[in-house]
Backbone:
């Protein structure tokens, strides 16, 4: 029995299968008198039931979908009023996230022109269209307004125009990690809203609600999307970028994983940090995970931005010294770029160091001897 059940579980069937399997096992309990067998079946049944409950939506909640569709135009004029309306239709955090995604899927269209030009509108509620970054930013804003922890994640996606065995040289997609009822879950508001394909050589977007992308099964999710920062895989043994590039099935991807990584502790440290510290933490993690030039440039920029922030926000020797140390780190990484862009920013870093040293000297003179 154990081999049969675990064999079925390891095949990665949809959560609905696990749910119904758990019900069958509960019935089998009545036919086994051996206490150890009963304990095993009961424990496994409960574990499958719990697993199925956190692996994404089973079906559309028609009541919530209808409620989202009925949102008055005036309520959708800004994020606070939109959230206030939508929250009234939900009875839990998970339903709140769900109704947010329904509204986005119904009202926001993918901006194929912006995708082609590599831009984003930043005014998604006004234009009612956007690219993945706009979708993810809007959902994040809505969640934060509702008091729900939500993070914007950028990463590598096997989406539109992807070709098998592609080596990713930069991140190309954005989605969200949301804390719902104490657990972190994955949601892709863009892919939940529809899909794109070429029609007569032109990228065309088709609206089609896909609930599998809302509070998604992590194994389903990672086969096509991998975060640039591995903490957002929500795995203690992250799948490597090479395994993601070379494979399409979760079974094969899991054969190449990184060393143990406590993602819960990593996220906890990230949440406690301020915005500039988070910028640096993500850039460091992304570069360690995939040391490509684009991530190297982002890391150098993160060090520079944090250095500039410290040097221009505080007026004390401690922060000026911290700023200098970060400028020096930025110079090391800009040097590795070995291009004109890096050279330009090395010069800016040196100017920042000169400024901080002058401020330190100025403050030192004011210290009573």
Residues:
């Amino acid at each position: 029995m154990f081999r049969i059940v675990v064999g079925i579980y390891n095949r990665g069937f949809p959560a609905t299968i696990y749910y119904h399997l758990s019900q069958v096992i509960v019935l089998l309990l009545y036919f086994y008198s051996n206490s150890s067998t009963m304990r095993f079946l009961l424990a496994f049944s409960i574990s499958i039931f719990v697993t199925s409950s956190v692996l994404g939506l089973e079906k559309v909640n028609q009541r919530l979908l209808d409620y989202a569709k009925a949102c008055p135009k005036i309520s959708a004029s800004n994020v606070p009023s939109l959230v206030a309306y939508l929250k009234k239709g939900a009875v839990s955090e998970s339903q709140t996230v769900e109704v947010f995604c329904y509204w986005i899927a119904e009202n926001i269209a993918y901006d194929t022109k912006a995708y082609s030009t590599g831009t984003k509108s930043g005014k998604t509620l006004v234009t009612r269209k956007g690219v993945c970054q706009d979708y993810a930013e809007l959902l994040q804003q809505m969640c934060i307004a509702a008091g729900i922890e939500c993070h914007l994640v950028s990463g590598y996606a096997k989406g539109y125009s992807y070709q098998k065995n592609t080596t990713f040289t930069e991140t190309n997609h954005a989605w969200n990690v949301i804390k719902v009822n104490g657990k972190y879950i994955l949601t892709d508001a863009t892919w939940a809203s529809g899909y794109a394909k070429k029609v007569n050589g032109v990228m065309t977007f088709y609206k089609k609600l896909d609930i599998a992308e809302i509070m998604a099964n992590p194994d389903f999710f990672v086969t096509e999307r991998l975060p640039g920062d591995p903490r957002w895989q929500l795995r203690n043994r992250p799948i490597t970028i090479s395994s993601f590039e070379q494979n399409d099935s979760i079974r094969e991807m899991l054969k190449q994983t990184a060393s143990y990584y406590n993602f819960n502790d990593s996220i906890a440290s990230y949440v406690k940090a301020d915005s500039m510290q988070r910028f640096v933490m993500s850039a460091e993690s992304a570069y360690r995970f995939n040391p490509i030039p684009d991530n190297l440039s982002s890391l150098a920029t993160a060090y520079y931005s944090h250095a500039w922030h410290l040097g221009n926000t505080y007026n004390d020797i401690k922060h000026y010294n911290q700023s200098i140390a970060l400028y020096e780190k930025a110079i090391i990484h800009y040097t590795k770029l070995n291009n004109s862009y890096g050279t330009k920013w090395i010069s800016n870093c040196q100017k920042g160091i000169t400024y901080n040293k002058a401020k330190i000297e100025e403050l030192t003179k004011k210290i009573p001897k």
Summary: Confidence is low (pLDDT under 50) at residues 1-20, 41-54. Strands lie at 109-110, 129-130, 150-157, 173-180, 183-187, 194-199, 202-207, 225-227. The first strand starts at residue 109 and ends at 110. The radius of gyration is 24 Å.
